[in-house]
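User: I'm putting together a teaching handout on how multi-component assemblies are represented. Below are the sequence lines for each component of a complex, exactly as they appear in our records. Could you produce the 3D structure of the whole assembly as structure tokens, so the students can see both representations side by side? Please keep the chain order the same as the input.
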Amino acid sequence: MNMPKIPLGEWIDSLVNWITITFTGLFSFLNSTIEGLLNILVDVLSAGPPVVIMMILALLVTYTSKWPLGIFTIICLLLIDNLGYWESSIQTLAIVILSGILTVVVGLPIGVWCAQRKSVRNIITPILDFMQTMPAFVYLIPAILFFGIGVVPGIIASFIFAIAPTIRMTILGIQEVPKDLIEASDAFGSNSSQKLFKVQLPLATPTIMAGVNQSIMLALSMVVTASLVGAPGLGADVYRAVSQINVGQGFEAGLSIVFIAIILDRITQNLRKPAYERIVSRKIVFSILAILVVFTALISEVKNEEVEEGNPSGVGAQTEYEIIGIEPGAGIMTQARNAMKDYGLDNWQLVEGSSAAMVAELKKAYDQKELIIITGWSPHWMFSSFDLKYLDDPNETFGGSEEIHTIVRKGLDQDAPGANTILDQFFWETIDMEEVMVQIEEGTDPAQAAEEWIAAHQDKVAQWTNGAQEGNGNPIKLVYVAWDTEIASTHVIGKVLEQNGYNVTLSQVEVGPMFASVANGSADAMVAAWLPSTHLEYYNTYKDDIVDFGPNLQGTKNGLVVPEYVDIDSIEDLK
Ligand code: PBE
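Assistant: Of course. Below is the structure of the complete assembly, with chains in the same order as your input.
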């Protein structure tokens, strides 16, 4: 059938665009409110030495779920601290608690409303179904555009993902209240709010709490996803471990998440009927807790006021001492971390996320002429779309000018000699790569951009394929990371191999897995090794199990990049 494609994607794009522009004010208000609340929570949880918080949490678990669990809690928390994940855990705990509070504050009234009105319920239920089945990743995309990268889009996405159970269970709980009790309260002449607060809600509480418990567990399950857009905490530790193939670290961080899950689960499950309620009443415990929280919050706010120093109009203050980074495993991230040490930028933070999120953040800041510092590299189309400059790097922490190498698995010359030859002879210039990148950025599909470039540069391609045997449909698997540079190069070389008779698959992975897969032979080749310095660590780890074909492009550069209108010139100026 020859029907034109319905431009659903484009409609959504323009809708999101419109929302972004129209509600800028609202978003920045929400952004600062949520971030402010989160900071308070983090401050409260990290006031005083860790042991104090551990004791309080353990006591709370003991109170709600008996002493053996309290002991278990203290052991878990001590272990987390010992493994070095205490700070991350505090971040995660704060994020989950805040998402939990938000789901209750928003979800409960919606649930009540749905329970009372069938028409509302008929509208909300399908929306909830939709929200729960849409992959949570998808929410991250508009969330980045609305809120920038950092913890807020993560919290919002978790909130959307997690709110459904609270609403559903509230509806269920209220509907399950026996009819005769409602009739009785009607008979006593109670109005609808009396009925709600004195009869329905109290009777529905166990069901509602089960929903809240589910919501909190769902929010916790979002922490890894949220770290893709820069949310800190245990999720970021897991993500970093994946992108660097660090099994041990992945397990430790994962285990910490499990511990936090158990603790939160026990507390929320038994909150309504604590195990030791007879000994100390709930009111007393919760009042003490509330007073403690408010008190620490106030104290840490006062302390914060005192330490607020430095020049409020300086670059640091205006960027909140944040450098916007990319995938945690990227070589440039290691360089940036080293640079922060080298140049003594102790109060700065490197935000982890992804290349796409970084670019979105840059676009946003650039449009509003706000200060921003990113980890940047060339060749990259961003230099032609925006007026940008590299900050001077007198210590050469970012390694100066580099090359991109082609690396193939051992034995490829035997199994696919033609592909081996082509990959070996693949070499092009920065302007070639840029041509493809700009095309892709302007909306051309990468495969098509590659084809067009090949058609326009037959002479160059002929040099690569010179003397290469036909592929006869043999499979070739190329791996790459979703950096703009490698999207371009991998698609071009992939198409060339295809035109020479190979059956090519491209697979997009994280940095560590990219090297590892070529080393263990599960992928055939990659054209994305930035050397000698950016990927040195990966290179050294795998160098005995790979074949290095040398550079396919020369003259690349990494560094910290700012828009031209930012009036500093060197990394040293950030101090
Ligand atoms: N980058 C920049 C790669 C190589 C240099 C993002 C394309 C990286 O940092 O690992």
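A couple of points students might notice: Residues 413 and 420 are 5 Å apart (CA to CA). The first strand starts at residue 322 and ends at 324.
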